[in-house]
Amino acid sequence: MAENRNVKEDELYDLAELFKAFGDSTRIRILFALFEKDYAVNDLAEHLNMTQSAISHQLKILKRFKLVGNSREGKSRIYFLADDHVRTIISMGIEHIEE
Fold first, then answer.
1. Which phi-psi region, left, alpha or beta, contains residue 31 (left: φ > 0; alpha: ψ -120 to 50)?
2. Any alpha helices (H) in 1-99, and if so which ranges?
3. pTM here?
């Protein structure tokens, strides 16, 4: 656990940057949707009532922070949460605000 070790300055910076990715309500909406199931961009845009361009822009940011991954399925890219750590962060965040 982080509290049991010395954390390097660059790790603190990277952690702050990671949390910035969670600081946008559109990105949170996307992550929350992906928490439930995987989506193609057009389906995600329809589900969230947003443009594909807006969704693609936010997915690019989420991908840069390694919060989402994607795979090709025919001509579409299917987006999903990158790993269980992302699920845990979202679950813990929801738990925290519900207390």
1. alpha
2. 9-21, 25-36, 41-48, 52-64, 84-98
3. 0.86
Measured from the Cβ of residue 34, the count of other Cβ atoms closer than 10 Å reads 23
- The candidate with the shortest Cα–Cα distance to 31, out of 96, 92, 99, is 92
| Tokens encoding 66 | 């390694």
pLDDT tens by residue, 6-51: 888 998 998 898 999 999 999 999 999 999 999 999 999 999 999 9
63 C-beta neighbours (distance < 10 Å), count:
14
Burial 66-90 (b: 16+ CB within 10 A, else e): ebbbbeeeeeeebbebbeeebeebb
Domains (range + CATH), the chain: 8-98 (1.10.10.10)
- Which structure tokens are listed for 10? 């660059």
